Each structure stands twice: as C-alpha cells, then as structure tokens.
Amino acid sequence: MVVKVGDTIPNATVILSSNATEKNACAIPKKVSTADLFKGKVVLFAVPGCFTPTCHVSHLPSFVTHYEEFKKKGVDSVYCLSTNDIFVMDAWGKSSGADDKVKMVADGNGEFVNALGLNLDLTPQMMGATRAKRFALIAQDGVIQHLAVGDVDVSGAEAILAKL
C-alpha cells in the first residue's frame, strides 16, 4: 500500500553520516529513526541510485541549488534518500556539494521505502530488487502534506518549492 497525503510517516531506521562536512573522510554511520528525522517541516526526495544519470545530473543538484529557497519557505531539513549504503550516499553528497544543506539518507535495506510502498524492483537492470521510486514529499511533524511520485518535473526542487 502506498502512503498518501495525510498519512503519518511510517517508523523505520535509516542511516545518516555524522561527519558529512569532513571532505576527505569516510562516513561515520549514525542510525536515526524516521520519527526523529521528520520533526518540523521536512522535504525528502528519493532517487533510485546514487551517481545514476538523472539522479546525479538533475535531481540532487536541483535541491542543492535551491536550498536557500527551501529555508526561506520555512523548511527545517532537506533530505536525499536512496537504497544505497551510507558510504556511497556520503561520497555522493560530498562530490555534489550537498555539504550540510541536503542531508544524505541511506535506506540500505529498503526498510523505509518498503514501508512507504514506494519501492521499485530494478532486477532487470541489474540494480537490485529493492530500490526507491523517484519521489519527493513534504511533511510537517511526521504527517505527509504533499507527495509527488515521478520524474524530476514533479519531484525536483522547482516542483516541490511550488507546493510549499
């Protein structure tokens, strides 16, 4: 079952890097509950994979570029989620200039995307059975206010800014 507007974010554990701003260091994994992640006004966007063409060239850069606009609209945190491990997520964030603006969230086992009902099987592309669909959501204190599933035209920064 896919979550919808008005639903509460399901409880899951994800991983963040506790040293995301240390440029030449590997990630130090930090487990975080989604209950803690979604405090305040949060924008989370998900991608099928780090360093993949659309994700790397369009999706993540749009949120990094427009980060200050999200802050001006009252967003407390902007997160990028993928089912990659935290070491890949951290390296991708550092190489993309996400710094401490867009925080990289690893859902390596797909626990969270499965709970959202937004998982995708990319086995035919040899990318694994549990990936995240491309989506973005806006949540306030753990309640989904907006959900956009699809390409960057609906889940990219410009489209999500228009919904705030």
TrEMBL record:
Known Gene3D superfamilies for this protein?
Glutaredoxin
Give the top-rank taxon of the lineage listed in the UniProt record for this protein.
Answer: Eukaryota
Instruction: List the keywords (alphabetical).
Output: Antioxidant, Oxidoreductase, Peroxidase, Redox-active center
Q: Name the Pfam families for this protein.
A: Redoxin
| Molecular functions (GO terms) | thioredoxin peroxidase activity
**Active-site residues, as the UniProt record annotates them:** 55
Q: What GO biological process, any one, is recorded here?
A: cell redox homeostasis
Q: Tell me which GO cellular component terms the UniProt record holds.
A: mitochondrion; peroxisome
Q: Per the database record, which ranges form the Thioredoxin domain?
A: 3-164
InterPro entries assigned to the protein according to its UniProt record, in alphabetical order: PRX5-like, Redoxin, Thioredoxin-like_sf, Thioredoxin_domain
What's its job?
A: Thiol-specific peroxidase that catalyzes the reduction of hydrogen peroxide and organic hydroperoxides to water and alcohols, respectively. Plays a role in cell protection against oxidative stress by detoxifying peroxides.
Matching entries from PANTHER family are given as: PEROXIREDOXIN, PEROXIREDOXIN-5, MITOCHONDRIAL
Give the UniProt family note: Belongs to the peroxiredoxin family. Prx5 subfamily.
Quote the protein name from its UniProt record.
Thioredoxin-dependent peroxiredoxin
